[in-house]
């Protein structure tokens, strides 16, 4: 318990310091700024590994038992931002997250997160590029281990959109993700996608879109390799003074090297509705294929709705609920539910306080796949 007490004391000191006027950020030249960031979190988690109490026939204990704990996280970082209001703008960020558990110290970790984004935008074209390296150590609904699922994820991509005529534009891109797992029971994978889109200005605020994408997934298990072709039509923009967003709908075809491919609905949509100057709603829906960390193919159908309300100039309350149907190609399907409720208070220009409750529940089609998880957390965030 000593390490928890020590870090909790530091956490309290950070919060106490929030009433002190923070030092100004550092300006680097005329259009670049360097920010120091930090986040301290105290968390109460009743199922760290998304486990269950199910004991398989012939076994004496659960394969992935439920473990609850008090968790402390401290995440110092730096953010270098340049080109504000310029043709070229970008951001480089580094965060190191230190996690300590009160009882389950085998789950302790130190994880790095490095990201870079850059954009060039003029009157006729926009080009953006990104790259990131993230160390992760967490379980998900389709990736569970008794000791958490450690992995390294490298992502890089570029997108370009240019005006062709007064009413048409063309967009294309490239995205690459390399996921490497620490445990040999999981399967490393490379995912590469190439999207192409054509846009037509239907109104000054709404564009129609015609889209195609090729995606290749290579894994350490050749039989799990796949190729996807997606064809969609859609629209983007401000559909009414209060409703904005985008949607794409069409067909996606997956071909698996070992056989057993599938053709299905392709769906991607995200909308925001400004109910009032202080309250907004978000809606999203999607359907696409996925390859899990065990090399299994899935079709994921998901829906989500969220609301955010600015109760006062400094206090914002937000909530979100979602449901996801995991249609596994070679085993029974799962239904996954998630919900969150959070409050964020802005102390001043540099400090924020945040409290949150998160709930997850999975109703699986195989024995031992059911779980539920409740997490209460309180965070203090610094940026100056």
Describe this structure in words.
The chain is mainly beta and 384 residues long. The chain has a single domain (47-70, 139-383), classed as Beta Barrel (Porin). It contains 1 helix and 19 strands. It has an 18-stranded antiparallel barrel. Strand 8 and strand 9 (189-203) form a beta hairpin. The protein is globular. Residues 1-22 form the signal peptide. This is Outer membrane beta-barrel protein.
Explain briefly what this protein structure is.
This protein has 384 residues and is mainly β. Helices cover 4% and strands 65% of the residues.
Question: Layout of SSEs?
Answer:
Elements: H1 2-16, E1 26-28, E2 32-45, E3 69-82, E4 88-101, E5 109-121, E6 125-137, E7 150-163, E8 168-181, E9 189-203, E10 206-219, E11 226-238, E12 243-256, E13 262-274, E14 279-291, E15 297-310, E16 315-328, E17 334-346, E18 351-363, E19 371-383
Antiparallel strand pairs: 1-2, 2-3, 2-19, 3-4, 4-5, 5-6, 6-7, 7-8, 8-9, 9-10, 10-11, 11-12, 12-13, 13-14, 14-15, 15-16, 16-17, 17-18, 18-19
InterPro entries: BBP2_2 (IPR018759)
Protein name: Outer membrane beta-barrel protein
Keywords: Signal
DSSP strand (E) fraction?
over 45%
Distance from N terminus to C terminus (CA atoms, Å) equals: 32 Å
The whole-angstrom Rg is 23 Å
Structural class determined from secondary elements: mainly beta
Indicate the percent of residues in helices: under 10%
Report low-confidence residues grouped into runs of 5 or more.
Answer: 13-24
Spatial shape? globular
Q: What is the overall pLDDT average?
A: 93
User: How many individual helices?
Assistant: 1
Q: Count the strands?
A: 19
Chain oligomer state: single chain
The helix/strand order is HEEEEEEEEEEEEEEEEEEE
* Number of separate domains: 1
CATH fold label: Porin
Q: What does the largest sheet look like?
A: 18 strands, antiparallel, barrel
Looking at the overall shape, the CATH architecture is Beta Barrel
Query: Can you tell me the CATH class?
Result: Mainly Beta
